[in-house]
Amino acid sequence: MARLPDSLFAQLLALPLGAALVLPLGVPMQAAERAIASVIEQHPMRRFAIGEHVAQPSQGEAVHNVRIGRLADA
Questions:
Q1: How many other C-beta atoms lie within 10 A of the C-beta of residue 38?
Q2: What tens digit of pLDDT does each residue of 19-56 get?
Q3: Does 64 fall in a domain?
Q4: DSSP label at 58?
Q5: How far apart, in whole angstroms, are the C-alpha atoms of residue 73 and residue 9?
Q6: Assigned domain for 15 exists
Q7: Which SS3 state, helix, strand or coil, does residue 36 take?
Q8: Rounded to whole angstroms, how far apart are CA atoms 23 and 67?
Q9: Where on the tree of life does the source sit, at the highest rank (predicted)?
């Protein structure tokens, strides 16, 4: 399992409105959810959407990454 970058909190804080962050391969959804929760705990107006980014680098192959998008503040 991949380790979350130490700067994920800072990356989420700096993420522009409408932008998305695709996490490295192997980062679990639960780890991303915890990182989002820690940002929202300190900045309750921030909103994010979390989902899956699927890339197909070659025919028959699919790479799945966690994707975090920045939404408009509440």
A1: 13
A2: 999 998 888 899 899 999 999 999 999 999 999 998 88
A3: yes
A4: S
A5: 17
A6: yes
A7: helix
A8: 6
A9: Bacteria
What local confidence, expressed as pLDDT, does residue 22 receive?
94
Q: Is residue 3 part of a domain?
A: no
Q: Compute the distance between CA of residue 52 and CA of residue 18 in angstroms, rounded to an integer.
A: 16
φ, ψ of residue 38 to 5 degrees: the values are: -70, -35
Q: Which residue's entry shows tokens 């130490």? A: 6
Q: Is residue 40 assigned to a domain? A: yes
CA distances from 55 to 28, 29, 50, 58 (A): 17, 17, 16, 9
Residue 65 phi/psi, 5-degree rounding, is -130, 155
Give residue 40's pLDDT: 94
pTM: 0.81
* pLDDT tops 60 at residue 57: yes
Hey, what amino acid is at 43? H
């028959």: which residue's tokens?
60
